[in-house]
């Protein structure tokens, strides 16, 4: 676990035209390969979580003049800058950056999607599909799994073919109740 204070100067990665910002909120998070923020919570109660998404397609970042953000810093960007899901979703209607997916130590390009939730119970799932950001913002989107993309999961669920077994676990903290769902299919 890593703790970052508010007021920390941040960068979107070691690359040309990297996005820079100063964190508005302190956060605690788990690191992936010691180089990326994968799951975390900020002091305002915003939680950000990333999971593997083989279908992720962030588009060709070289075709844009926007600042660049490594996919490994995507999660941290939200923890640092937003107190609520609504704020984050509003800011991403016109993303201020392009995503760069570097190669991981296993030799594959990073490919994830992101879920956000806050202390009010609001939630959203953000996925890049075919080079475009898709935002699923509603209380209907409270659970995210690894691949496939969310719309595929919802279509499978509606036909009854996705879920074989589901177990729910509830964890109570001082600030909020978190529901973990384990699904096998």
TrEMBL record:
Gene3D superfamilies on file: Penicillin V Acylase, Chain A
Keyword Membrane appears in the UniProt entry: no
Keyword GTP-binding in record: no
Enzyme Commission (EC) number: 3.5.1.24
Keywords for this protein: Hydrolase
Choloylglycine hydrolase/NAAA C-terminal domain ranges (all copies): 2-154
Pfam families assigned: CBAH (PF02275)
Gene Ontology molecular function: choloylglycine hydrolase activity
Family: Belongs to the peptidase C59 family.
Name of this protein: Choloylglycine hydrolase
Originating organism: Vibrio variabilis
Upper lineage: Bacteria, Pseudomonadati, Pseudomonadota, Gammaproteobacteria, Vibrionales
